[in-house]
Design brief:
about 50% strand; 3-stranded antiparallel beta sheet; mainly beta; about 90 residues; about 0% helix
Length: about 90
């Protein structure tokens, strides 16, 4: 999403959308137990919402650059759907 790079959507092959959020770790690096070198620490990805939009796979998805939470998507059933995600300001 242009307004928050930690929130993203994954498109499923069965017509579903999954909204995810990346959570940063407390420390970006840690010392390795083997040799004491600094190694990167990965964060975690949390699923926020899952929605079934249709029976056909979703083929395209685009967030609005101006309005937070507004998006449009297309699917193989030849329909255009307007997607509205609310409460993104609480993340």
């Amino acid at each position: 999403m242009p307004q928050n790079r930690d929130v993203f959507v994954a498109l499923g092959g069965s017509g579903n959308l999954s909204l995810w959020q990346y959570k940063y770790p407390a420390n970006r690096s840690a010392k390795s137990e083997d040799d004491g070198e600094k190694v990167g620490v990965v964060g975690e990805v949390v699923k926020l919402q899952d929605s079934q939009l249709g029976d056909q796979p979703v083929s395209g998805f685009d967030w609005s650059p101006d309005k937070t939470g507004l998006a449009v998507c297309t699917a193989f059933d030849q329909k255009i759907r307007l997607v509205i995600v609310t409460k993104l300001n609480t993340l």
